[in-house]
């Protein structure tokens, strides 16, 4: 088999049999894929749908969906990579360990939009400026992802989520025709991106997330990594270019607001900062009263340090027992020293272990180290560390009054 085609100078050039077979196979494969999923009409459009943050923790960072609309083919398919099921076996164990499977779900946009609107979440549509071939490739990619054997994936909040999957799909469809710079408007670490959304909107959720994630979250996100947030993804799409034929055009052809959310009041009457400073003040007053009265009682310490130890064990569980990828190297372990539970239970007004003095010295050093990690929690850890220092001082001051045993 020997096929010829004309070059620019008019001379015929042979195509080898292997190359010809490859070309024919590619054409057949492309046709078969389109036949399997259907061919989009010239009136089809594909849009990025960006949903604003909701009130719940799981929705507090927004959401991204790709919408394929083709009136001539009767298509209304919104591709949602953020679906999980509470019916999954061992749901909470898998959720904590970071192994909960997420899946791609597909349904009419209006059904999902009604749900988001009921939650008072803004909905924005950005129509993608794609050629007919690029639309078909993107549609085929999404439909192939929706096959039962492909729709499940292991969700990673920073690295593989509902927004990053939009980028993967678009790159797969457009290849080198796409100029995607990512989000270049500002640089932040992953933790700082979380703070931007959670600190004012839900300070308790922000504190909990800061407590759970470790040093990898303090890495500066690259422009592409920053698109793990839907708003950043929308901005990145707005800065992207697409090559269609001999033209280079903006990736976004048009925009419209489907729904604009009403302003919401996110004010929390009691924030972590308020609560922990109030507790620090109460603990200080109680400690001063104990010292003045010469009272030796460790009930408060057993409650306080048992709770601190419990937090420490939870941090260790997230560090070594999960697959989130961002909960390792968590230096909150310095103040949340796991061995406080059970070591604090060994001391009482009637006895003290010989090693307890060395435990206090070692923990004092850990608290000193913990001050280098204050910015992680927007300074919320300051009153926590002060509270712990106050009680360590009280315990150390009371040791001389306790008989030594062991």
Automatic annotation (TrEMBL):
The chain crosses the membrane at residues 274-291, 303-322, 328-348, 355-374, 380-396. Keywords: Membrane, Transmembrane, Transmembrane helix. Residues 43-175 form the Lnb N-terminal periplasmic domain. Residues 268-395 form the Lnb-like transmembrane domain. It holds the Pfam family Lnb_N. This is DUF4105 domain-containing protein. It comes from Dyadobacter psychrotolerans.
């Amino acid at each position: 088999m020997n096929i010829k085609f004309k070059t620019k100078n008019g001379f015929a050039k042979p195509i080898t049999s292997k190359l010809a077979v490859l070309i024919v196979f590619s054409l057949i494969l492309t046709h078969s894929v389109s036949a399997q999923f259907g061919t989009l009409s010239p009136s089809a459009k594909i849009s990025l749908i960006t949903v604003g943050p909701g009130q719940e923790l799981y929705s507090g960072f927004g959401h991204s969906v790709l919408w394929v609309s083709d009136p001539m083919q009767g298509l209304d398919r919104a591709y949602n990579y953020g679906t999980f099921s509470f019916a999954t076996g061992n749901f909470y164990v898998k959720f904590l360990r970071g192994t909960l499977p997420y899946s791609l779900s597909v349904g009419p946009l209006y059904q999902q939009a009604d749900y988001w609107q009921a939650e008072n979440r803004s909905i924005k549509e950005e129509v993608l400026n794609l050629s007919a071939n690029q639309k078909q490739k993107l549609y085929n990619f999404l439909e192939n992802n929706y096959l039962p054997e492909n729709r499940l994936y292991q969700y990673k909040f920073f690295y593989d989520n509902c927004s990053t999957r939009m980028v993967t799909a678009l790159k797969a469809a457009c290849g080198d025709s796409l100029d995607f710079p990512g989000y270049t408007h500002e640089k932040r670490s992953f933790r700082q991106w979380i703070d931007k959304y959670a600190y004012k909107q839900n300070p308790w959720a922000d504190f909990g997330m800061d407590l759970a994630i470790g040093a990898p979250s303090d890495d500066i996100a690259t422009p592409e990594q920053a698109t793990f947030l839907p708003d950043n993804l929308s901005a990145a799409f707005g800065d992207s270019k697409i090559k269609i034929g001999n033209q280079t055009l903006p990736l976004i052809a048009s925009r419209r607001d489907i729904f604009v959310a009403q302003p919401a009041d996110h004010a929390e009457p009691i924030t972590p900062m308020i609560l922990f400073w109030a507790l620090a003040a109460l603990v200080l007053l109680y400690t001063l009263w104990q010292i003045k009265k010469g009272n030796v009682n460790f009930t408060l310490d057993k409650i306080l340090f048992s709770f601190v130890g419990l937090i420490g064990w939870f941090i260790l569980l997230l560090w070594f027992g999960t697959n989130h990828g961002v909960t390792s190297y968590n230096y909150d372990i310095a103040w949340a020293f796991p061995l406080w539970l059970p070591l604090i239970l060994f001391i009482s007004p009637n006895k003290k272990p010989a090693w307890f003095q060395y435990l206090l010295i070692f923990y004092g050093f850990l608290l000193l180290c913990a001050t280098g990690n204050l910015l992680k929690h927007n300074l919320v850890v300051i009153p926590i560390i002060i509270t712990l220092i106050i009680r360590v001082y009280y315990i150390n001051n009371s040791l001389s009054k306790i008989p030594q045993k062991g």
